[in-house]
């Protein structure tokens, strides 16, 4: 049978080789060698599942021979057979020969059979593990490349279209089509936003946590600045009380604040004259308490516990549909930096998110 | 406009080349725009230039097949020093890739990095600020 496991037995006593072969030839593909030299020739470009070697052989001990096979065949299971039982040989066999089992001469056939079965299983699972590992590495690699290309190849044509639309809107004779352009533009931005969220999610789940020095004044004003053009009429109240050095992950904090602040801007209440977004940050040596609140439409109580789930969207009659990713990413990113989040919301009154982010400052 | 300059555009995306040229023409700060869809050809052209004839500004895309923006920069650095010193390079990227964007920011040859779609107002502000125009 082709898929029989290959077993090599090396011994300088030919009778042993003959009886071993007759005993196991039905279970395994058995190779035998009368010397270490012959054995090395057999295993050249021919991986064994199990190699069994006698310890006492002229010219080369079993341990010395087995040790020579380790580098080429790390997965192969090595067994030593010996009549000697001194502890030094055992230690040397384990450390130098990397043997898995030790068989005493004269051997008991039943025990020997069981030992070989056990070793065959061990070898097969080592091979499977190596194959699975290789597969996993390949998948990982593909995922890396996919996201890298998604971040460019999906966005690049989209940005071209957006650029063209924005350019077309500058042309005076295009004024009649202004309404259409607005719709096109908002669809493009929506798709782009979605792409960005997916990339953010991926980056959050893959990147190692990084320790950056955080200046909340700069960080929050960056976020507010980049988002304020979404809705120029929004009034921002930003208060930062940072008196201590703060160490955490800059990228993840930006992801968290960008998502929460853009939600606060987006879900305004049409019945409220002035839409306000308040961001308050207080830091100390333990961590940062950040509050982001708005006087927008709020979240109906029955949905509050679902808002951090992936792809959950509250049913809404307004045009403001979210992607169902933003808050999920917020929660995931907070988990990575050991933070926490709480939400309070009242329909028609507004929503408040309270976040705690630990300070990794060692002092 | 204080100065009118020569601009070289390098981008593997034909639409972006078209668009950048249009936007530059609207602002009228350039008397000639050279468009290259292949960065290798752009380098070949630059090798034939002297410091009088070479462009004043290059808008360079990051991700391009064959030679990407960073490989272009490496080849650019080997051009004669007067040319390297004269040309102002701005990178324009549609990538959200951290590594790319921080590499661009870290390069001393790159004077600015803008994300696509390029805001022509931001570019003009940057060029005025750095006395290119």
Describe the structure.
The complex is a heterodimer of chains A (363) and B (133). By secondary structure, chain A is α/β, with parallel strands linked by helices. Chain A folds into three domains: 6-107, Response regulator (Rossmann fold), CATH 3.40.50.2300; 137-206; 212-358, Histidine kinase-like ATPase, C-terminal domain (Heat Shock Protein 90, 2-Layer Sandwich). Helices cover 46% and strands 19% of the residues of chain A. Chain A contains nine helices and twelve strands. Chain A has helices at 14-24, 36-42, 62-69, 87-95, 109-170, 178-206, 216-228, 250-266, 326-336; strands spanning 6-10, 29-33, 50-54, 77-82, 101-104, 212-213, 235-241, 247-248, 276-283, 287-294, 340-346, 350-358. Chain A has a five-stranded parallel β-sheet with strand order 2-1-3-4-5, sandwiched between helices. In chain A, strand 11 (340-346) and strand 12 (350-358) form a beta hairpin. In chain A, helix 5 (109-170) runs antiparallel to helix 6 (178-206). The model of chain A has no long low-confidence stretch (mean pLDDT 89). In chain B, helix 1 links the parallel strand 1 and strand 2. Chain B has a domain at 38-129: Rossmann fold (3-Layer(aba) Sandwich). The longest helix of chain B is centred in the N-terminal third of the chain and has 14 residues, at 14-27. Chain B is of the alpha/beta class. In chain B, helix 2 (39-47) runs parallel beside helix 3. The mean pLDDT of chain B is 90. Chain B has helices spanning 14-27, 39-47, 69-77, 81-86, 98-106, 120-129; strands at 5-10, 30-36, 57-61, 88-93, 110-115. Chain B is globular and about 35 Å long. The A-B interface holds A 148, 151-152, 155-157, 159-164, 166-167, 170, 196, 199, 203, 251 and B 13, 15-16, 19, 22-23, 26, 63, 94-98, 116-118.
């Amino acid at each position: 049978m082709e898929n029989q496991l290959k077993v090599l037995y090396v011994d300088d006593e030919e009778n042993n080789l003959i009886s071993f072969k007759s005993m196991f030839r039905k279970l395994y593909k058995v190779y035998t060698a009368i010397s270490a030299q012959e054995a090395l020739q057999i295993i050249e470009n021919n991986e064994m599942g199990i190699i069994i070697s006698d310890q006492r052989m002229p010219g080369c001990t079993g341990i010395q021979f087995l040790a020579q096979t380790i580098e080429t065949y790390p997965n192969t299971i090595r067994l030593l057979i010996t009549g000697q039982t001194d502890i030094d040989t055992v230690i040397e066999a384990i450390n130098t020969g990397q043997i898995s089992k030790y068989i005493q001469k004269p051997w008991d056939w039943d025990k020997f059979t069981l030992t070989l079965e056990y070793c065959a299983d061990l070898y097969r699972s080592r091979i499977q593990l190596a194959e699975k590992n290789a597969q996993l590495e390949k998948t990982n690699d593909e995922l890396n490349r996919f996201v890298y290309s998604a971040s460019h190849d999906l966005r690049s044509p989209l940005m071209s279209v957006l650029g063209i639309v924005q350019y077309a809107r500058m042309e005076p004779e295009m004024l009649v089509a202004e309404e259409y352009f607005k719709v096109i533009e908002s669809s493009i931005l929506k798709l782009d936003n979605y792409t960005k969220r997916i990339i953010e999610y991926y980056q959050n789940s893959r990147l190692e946590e990084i320790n950056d020095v955080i200046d909340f004044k700069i960080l929050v004003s960056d976020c507010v600045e980049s988002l304020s053009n979404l809705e120029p009429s929004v009034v921002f109240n930003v208060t930062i009380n940072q008196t201590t050095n703060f160490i955490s992950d800059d990228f993840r904090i930006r992801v968290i604040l960008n998502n929460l602040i853009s939600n606060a801007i987006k879900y305004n209440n049409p019945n409220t004259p002035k839409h306000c977004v308040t961001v308050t940050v207080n830091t100390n040596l333990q961590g940062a308490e950040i509050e982001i609140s708005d006087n927008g439409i709020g979240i109906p109580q029955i949905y509050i516990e679902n808002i951090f789930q992936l792809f959950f969207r509250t049913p809404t009659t307004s045009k403001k549909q979210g992607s169902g990713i933003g808050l999920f990413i917020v929660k995931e990113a907070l988990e990575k930096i050991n933070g926490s989040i709480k939400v309070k919301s009242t329909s028609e009154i507004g929503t408040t998110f309270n976040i705690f982010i630990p300070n990794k400052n060692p002092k | 406009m204080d100065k009118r300059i020569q601009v070289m555009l390098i981008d593997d995306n034909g639409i972006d080349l078209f668009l950048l040229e249009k936007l530059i023409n609207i602002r009228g700060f350039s008397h000639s725009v050279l468009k290259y869809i292949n960065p290798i050809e752009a380098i070949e052209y630059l090798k034939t230039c002297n410091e009088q004839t070479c462009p004043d500004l290059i808008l360079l895309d990051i991700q391009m097949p064959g030679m990407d923006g960073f490989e272009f920069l490496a080849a650019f650095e080997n051009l004669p020093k007067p040319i390297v010193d004269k040309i102002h390079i701005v990178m324009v990227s549609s990538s959200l890739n951290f590594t790319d964007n921080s590499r661009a920011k870290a390069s001393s040859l790159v004077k600015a990095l803008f994300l696509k779609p390029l805001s022509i107002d931001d570019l003009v502000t940057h060029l005025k600020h750095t006395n290119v125009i």
